[in-house]
Amino acid sequence: MSRPAAFRCATEARSRDDQLAGTASRAHGWVVIEHPGPWPFAGFAELYLADDLKHAVRQAALTAGMRILLIRRHGRQPRRASRSWGVLRYDARGDHRQEWGTWSQESDLAEIIAAIDRPGETGHPPLYLACTHGIHDACCAIRGRPIAGALSQHWPENTWECSHVGGDRYAGNLLVVPDGIYFGDVAAPTAVTVVQQLREGLVAADHLRGYADLQPAQQYAVAEVLRRFGPAGRHAIRVVATKRSGDAWSVSLACDAPLPSRVHVQLKVVALPAARLTCLAPAETRAIEHQTLEFVAET
Asked: Which of 171, 186, 140 minimizes the C-alpha distance to 43?
């Protein structure tokens, strides 16, 4: 007798046609720490480091609105005496700043705390982070590793595997930092196309989960503009007003040409039927999605 196929949350999400837009995790910056070994289940929180050091780094990142991710290169890598860390800041004008350092012993990571308080430097290229956190969710590794492999062939210096970014069922997940762009349901060939578009200055609605600096309803409204009017620059759509009344939202956007100059999106948040949302979920829970009630574009 054949064994039943293992439950895979990303496969089930595709069968339900789960909505991508409006699902990006919020952040205004990222601390990335190179860790070539297996990911601990809880990422940085479970690294074999002194508790007081981990607490200090986590508190500094939290205060600055930053998320901490572990990173590693794709495939087998030679053992090195030192590894990299970086502090990457999002800027609403696109003036993103980064600061990088190295660590060979855990005390070196204390420099991250000081770096969080410094402005950093412009001119660094973005990173393409493919979530491969298989111990957290099998779908992340199964679908994330091919993304990392494909991007590494084209942009090896920019590409890293990373620990959990949120949204297991949207695997493969691709995060571009410090731009703060989340993509989901990405396969290897798609990832190359997505990054090629980004390098040309464009973001398309396909596979877009959202921008990390925006609230979910705002992320959804931006994705609606891109879906209706085509790809646009990361900062070509700006939120100018947001109002909420219960489950209803009103989001007003200012856009650069050739997009409409103003767009107003009325939407509502709807609770979905209960489902298993991750591979390891012990029970069903209810997710939400956004639905457009009215879309008005002004030229």
From this structure: 140
- With beta carbons less than 8 A apart as the criterion, state whether 34 and 233 touch: no
- Euclidean distance between CA atoms 282 and 128, whole angstroms: 32
Summarised one tens digit per residue, pLDDT across range 253-280 is 999 999 999 999 999 999 999 999 999 9
* Contacts (Cβ under 8 Å, ≥6 apart) of 176: 126, 127, 128, 129, 183, 195, 198
pLDDT at 2 over 60: no
Q: Taking the domains of the chain in order of start, what are their residue ranges?
A: 9-214
CB 23 within 8 A of CB 183: no
Residue 1 banded pLDDT, cuts 50, 70, 90: very low
CATH number of 9-214: 3.40.30.10
Outline where DSSP puts E strands in the chain: 29-34, 66-72, 83-89, 97-103, 127-131, 159-162, 174-177, 181-183, 208-211, 237-245, 248-255, 262-271, 288-298
Alpha carbon of residue 34 to chain centroid: 17
d(CA 218, CA 197): 22
- Provide CB contacts within 8 A for 127, sequence distance 6+: 32, 71, 86, 88, 158, 159, 160, 176, 177, 178
pLDDT at 3: 55
Whole-prediction pTM: 0.95
237-242, long-range: CB < 8 A, 24+ apart: 237/263, 239/214, 242/215, 242/217, 242/218
Do 32 and 69 contact (CB within 8 A), yes or no? yes
Alpha-carbon distance of 220 to 208, in angstroms, equals 9
Q: Which residues contact 113 (CB under 8 A, 6 or more apart)?
A: 56, 57, 60
